[in-house]
């Protein structure tokens, strides 16, 4: 018996791209609690269709997911896009103000891997203190009768988050005569 035997290379996966948090990049900076996706494009460089398991790891085990493409989804010579949806919600920011928490991102198959970086920060957050009513410098002074006018109210607004932001401070005073005084002021960009 004579004949030819053709041995085809098995399905072989090779990553083409990694997109973290829809930035089009292998690195991203996100706000703590945000719900972001990680997307990869993987190519089948083999000469046959085949199934492939694609594993995501963020922060050395902090987040782990595995998705599978079956042979009909991964034919020879084709590319497939796979999105790991909503994978960043539970990642924590650095507890030190102004410092981001950095996480390594690795997506892998049996044949290849691709790496990226994800940073998580705390959003801007205001804290109000040193309330000075009527301008006498006494914190929390509220005993003086303001009548129907408001001479002065001073409030120290501080940003205790990781990002610069403007804040609006709203003030409402209901005095003894039933008059309501409402004011608001915006801060400059607080860091």
Give a short synopsis of this structure:
This protein is mainly beta.
List descriptors.
191 residues, mainly beta, 5-stranded mixed sheet, 3-stranded antiparallel sheet, 12 strands
Explain what you see.
With 191 residues, the protein is mainly beta. Helix content is 0%, strand content 45%. The chain has no helices and 12 strands. It has strands at residues 13-20, 27-31, 38-44, 52-58, 63-69, 79-84, 101-108, 113-121, 126-133, 153-159, 168-174, 180-186. The strands form 4 sheets. A 5-stranded mixed beta sheet has the order 2-8-7-4-5, with no helix packed on it. It has a 3-stranded antiparallel beta sheet with strand order 1-3-6, with no helix packed on it. Strand 11 (168-174) and strand 12 form a beta hairpin. It is rod-shaped. The termini are far apart. Residues 140-148 have low confidence and may be disordered.
Helix and strand composition category: mainly beta
- Residues in helices, as a percent range: under 10%
**Poorly predicted regions:** 140-148
Report, as a whole number of angstroms, the end-to-end distance. 82 Å
**Helix and strand run:** EEEEEEEEEEEE
Report Rg: 29 Å
Overall pLDDT: 84
Total number of strands: 12
Order of strands across the biggest sheet? 2-8-7-4-5
Strand content: over 45%
Q: Largest sheet, if any?
A: 5 strands, mixed
- Given the C-alpha coordinates, what overall shape results? rod-shaped
| Count of discrete alpha- or pi-helical segments spanning 4 or more residues | 0
